Amino acid sequence: MSGSRKSTKRLKSAKELNRVVAEFYLECNRAKDEGRLVGWMPPMNGAIELFYAMDLQPVFPENWSPVCAAFGLTPGNFDIAHGLGYSRDLCGYLRNILGYVHGDMHGEQVPLGGLPEPDIILTPGGGCVPVMKIFHALERRFPDAAVFRADLPQVAVEDIQQHHIDYAVDQIKALAAFLEDQSGRKLDLDRLAQVVALSDRACQLWDEIMGYRSAVPTPFSAAEMGIMFVMVTRQGTQEAVDFLTMCRDEVAQRAADGVGVIENEKVRLFWDNIPLWYNMGLFNYFEKAGGVVVAETYSAAWSLRLDPAKPIEALALKSLQSYPLVSCVSIKKRMDMVLNACREYHIDGAILHRNKSCVPITLGQMDIKRALEQKLGVPSLIIDADHMDAENFSEAQFQTRADAFMEMLLERKA
Amino acid sequence: MSLDTSPFRQAAAEAWAALADENAPSALGYFCTYAPVELIHAAGYRPIRIMGGSGSISRADALTPAFICPYLRLAADKALAGEFKGLRGLMQGYTCDVSCGVMNIWEQNFPCEVHHTIPLPYGKGPGAREFLLKALAEAAEKLAAAGHPVTDEALDKSMDLYTALRGRVLELYELRQNGLLPLSAAELLEVINAGFIVEPVQYRSMLRGLLSSVQEALPAGQPSGVPLIVSGSIIEDPAILDTVEAAGARIVSDDLCTGLRPMLPPDGRGDDPWQRLADRLLERSPCPARTRAENRVEFITALANNSGARGVLFLLQKFCTPHLADLPDLRRCLSEAGLPSVVFELEETGANAGQLATRVEALLEMLGD
User: Quick one: average pLDDT of A141-161?
Assistant: First the structure.
C-alpha cells in the first residue's frame, strides 16, 4: 500500500489549474444555491456542451473521484461502499462515488463544498458497465432527480457508420428536448454552435499541447496530466480555451527554448491506462534515472475535432468515439494509436498499468505489449496497480521493477 | 425414477472433442447469449457457446489480466491449447466489457473468417428497434462476406427451430416448477449446456425424447428440499448444483445464462424473421450487463411466486462487475420481498464443495429449515 502523493510539477499553468479546479466546484455549488439546474453525468460525451449552451450546471461524479483521491477521502468512501455490500473487486470510481453519496456529502472534511445534489441524472446506456452501474445506483440514491436514459451502443471507432451517427444524433436531440422540458428554456442553436466551436478550439489546443511533447527534451510530462481536468469539466467554455491557451504558450516557449522537464533527459516513456490518482508522484519516480513520461493513452480521448457548422452531429460523433478510443471496444484502433504515439514521441519504453479498477482499458494490453516489441522494438513494463485503490498497489514492488526496467533501457541506449 | 440424461452428456462431449479439429464442420463461437444464434445458424454455421470448463490456468496470462471472470480466462486458456481450432470465428452482441474485450483479443490472436460484435441498443423504442435491425443487417453482411449469406427463408426456418428448442426447455422448467420433473438441477444443467454445442436438429430430437419419457418417470410423492432460486451468469460444472441440493436445497428455478435467462422470450414478434429476431433480443429477460437491478428484482420475485422458492442463492463468477454491482440493492429489495439470499463466488477451479455447502446451509438456517 502507498499513501497519497502529489506529483512535482514544472509548469506555471499548474498553479492556475488549482484555481480552475476550485472555481469549477464552487460554481457547481453556486448553481445549486442560485436555483440553476444541476445535472450529474458521465464524462466523454456531448452532453457537457448542451449543458453549457443552456446555462445548466454539469457535474461529473467520475471526476470527483480523483479529487477525493488527492484529498485522501477515498479510504473512508470505500469503507462506506463496502459496508453497503459493494465488493472490493469493483471499480474504484464506483466504490468511491457510491461511498461518497451515502456518506456526509458536505462534511467538514469534504473539500470545495462537495458535490451539489443532482436535479437531473443523465444515465448512460453505453460506455463501460461500471459507469452504467454507478448511475443506476445514483438514480436510487436521488429518487427526486429527473432521469434521462441515454442510449449509445458501443461501436468500435473503425466500424462507425452513418446509421450509428444518426441514432446518436437522435439521442442528442432527445436530450436537448428533455433539458428544455426540465428547464423551461429553449435551446438556442446559435449559442450551441458557439459552445461547440469553443469545444473544438479546446481540442485543437489540446492537440497542440500534446504535439509539443514530441520535442526532445520534452517540455511537459505526464506529471502535469491534471490539465485534462478542463477537458473533462469545462469543454465548450471560454475558461477552458483561456486556460489551454496559456498552457499551450508556456509549453511552446519551453519547447522553443529547449527546456525539458528534467535537465538531462535520457529515456522517454509511454504510459498506458489511467494514472494512480492517489500517487501522481509516481510519474516523477523515473526522473532520477533520467526518465520522463512523454505520452499516454488516456489523453487521446480528447484528441477529437468538432464541426461547429453541424453542432448536433459533432456532439453525436464525440459521444460515439471518446470511450471506444481508449478502451477495449476498439483494441485495433487503440493499438495503432499507441504504436503511432511511440513513433511520434520517440519512445524508448512503455509502462503498461495493469489497472484492477479499469478492465476495459487493461484488456488488450498484452497484445499492445507484443506489438510494441515486434513492430517497434520498444520494450514494456507491466505494473500491477489501481487508479483509485492504494490497497492494490505496492510501491516497493513498483520501484524494484521500475529500477530494473530503467537500467535495461539505459543500457540499450548506451 | 430418474430420467437418463447421459445422451446429452455424451453428445456434448463428442461435439466438444470434434471442435478441436480444424476441419470440423463450420462453427461460429460466442461467449454471451446475446448472440443471434438464429442468424448464425441461418448462415450455415453451427452456433456454439464457448465454454471454459474448470481447472488451473497455465496459458491465459499471455492474453488477459487475472482479474476478469474465470469463465473467459479458462476459455482463452483452452483456445491457446488448441481446443477450439474448429471455430471459424466469433459473433455476439455487446453486453459486458470483458466479453467484448476478450472477443477483440481473440481477433488479434486467432484470426478467423468472421469476428464481429453487434452493437445492441439499451432502449426498446422504435428508434432502438430500427438501430438493431440495421445492426443485424450489418452482421449478416459480415457473414455473407465470409461466404455465408443469409436468406429470409433460412432465417425464418432457424427462428422456428430455435423457438422450438427454447419451447421444449421451457416445458422442462414448467415441469420443474410444478415438482413434476424427475431430474436434479445438475441433470437439467447438463441438458441445457448440451444445447450450446450439440447440432440443433439433433438436440431438438433429444429434447423431444426426454420430454416423452417424463410421463413414465413422474416423481413419486412430493420432492424434498427447501425450494431456492439460483441466480448468476454461467455455471458449467453440474457438480456445483449437486452440492447445493445435497446441502438440503431444491433448486426450483433459476436466473442464469446457462438456464432460463436466454430462453425468454422463446420467440420475437414481427412480420418477418428479422423483426422476430430483433424483437426477441430487445425483449430478453433482464441481464445485469444491460438492465437495472430493479428489473431483476421484478423478474426474480415473479420466479419465486411461480415456483414457490423461498430464497435466492447467488452463484457468481468472481470479478463479474455487472452482477457484483447489482448485488447490494438487489439483495436488499429481495429481502424486503421476503426472499433472503446468500452469495458464493466461483473461481477458476470451480467451487469448493465444503464452503458452498456451508453457505447454502446458512441460507437454509435463515429460512428456518
Answer: 96
Cβ A366–B63 below 8 Å, yes or no? Answer: yes
Query: Residue for cell digits 464452503?
Result: B355
Bridge partner residues of B29 (DSSP): B48, B90
Task: Write down the pLDDT at residue A4.
Answer: 58
Rounded to an integer, the average pLDDT of A167-186 is 97
Q: Work out the mean pLDDT of chain B and round it to a whole number.
A: 95
Per-residue pLDDT at A2:
42
Q: Which residues pair with B250 in a beta bridge?
A: B227
From A89's Cα to the closest Cα of chain B, the distance in A is 6
Q: Indicate yes or no: CB of B325 within 8 angstroms of CB of A86.
A: yes
Mean pLDDT for the stretch of residues A370-391: 97
* Residue A268 confidence (pLDDT) above 80: yes
Rounded Cα gap, residues A284 and A9, in angstroms: 9
One-character DSSP codes across B140-204: HHHHHHTT----HHHHHHHHHHHHHHHHHHHHHHHHHHTT---S-HHHHHHHHHHTTTS-HHHHH
Where helices occur in A184-310 by DSSP H, the ranges are: 189-212, 228-233, 238-257, 282-285
Strands A380-385 and A291-296: unpaired
Q: What is the pLDDT of residue B215?
A: 75
**H/E stretch holding B78:** helix B70-80
Among the listed residues A182, A31, A17, the one whose alpha carbon sits nearest the alpha carbon of residue A115: A31
Query: Which of A333, A303, A338 minimizes the C-alpha distance to A154?
Result: A333
Shortest CA gap B289–chain A (Å): 7
Residue with cell 446506456: A125
Residues 302-331 of B with CB under 8 A from A: 318-319, 321-322, 324-329, 331
Owner of C-alpha cell 471472470: B69
**Distance spanning both ends of chain A, measured CA to CA:** 34
Confidence label for B1 from pLDDT (cuts 50, 70 and 90): low
Q: Which residues of B touch A327 (CB under 8 A)?
A: 97, 101
ipTM attached to this prediction: 0.96
Alpha-carbon separation of residue A261 from A219, A291, B299 (angstroms): 5, 10, 58
Is B138 at the interface with chain A, CB within 8 A? yes
Distance (Å) from the alpha carbon of B219 to chain A's nearest alpha carbon: 40
Which three cell numbers, joined as nine digits, stand for A97? 462515488
Tell me the residue type at A145. A
Q: Are A350 and A342 in contact (CB under 8 A)?
A: yes
| Residue to substitute from A80, A82, A87, interface B, most B β-carbons within 10 A | A87
Nearest by CB to B97, which of A89, A356, A360?
A: A360
DSSP code for A414: -
User: Can you give the pLDDT at residue B223?
Assistant: 79
CA contacts within 13 A on the Cβ side of A183: 23
Cα angle vertex A24, ends A111, A70, to 5°?
Answer: 40
Closest CA to A370 of A409, A404, A408, A331: A331
Contact between chains at A89 and B318 (C-beta distance less than 8 A):
yes
3-state secondary structure of B235: coil
Q: Which residues contact A311 (CB under 8 A, 6 or more apart)?
A: A49, A189, A192, A193, A195, A196
Phi and psi at residue B288, to the nearest 5°: -65, -20
> What does the pLDDT read at residue A3?
47
B234: nearest Cα among B321, B346, B309, B330 = B346
Mean pLDDT, rounded, of chain A:
95
CB atoms within 10 A of CB A374: 9
**Distance in Å, alpha carbon of B279 to nearest chain A alpha carbon:** 17
**How remote is the C-alpha of B100 from its chain's centroid?**
16
pLDDT over threshold 90, residue A6? no
Asked if B293's CB is within 8 angstroms of A367's CB, the reply is no
Separation CA A212–CA A218 (nearest Å): 7
Tell whether A36 lies on the interface with B, counting CB pairs under 8 A: no
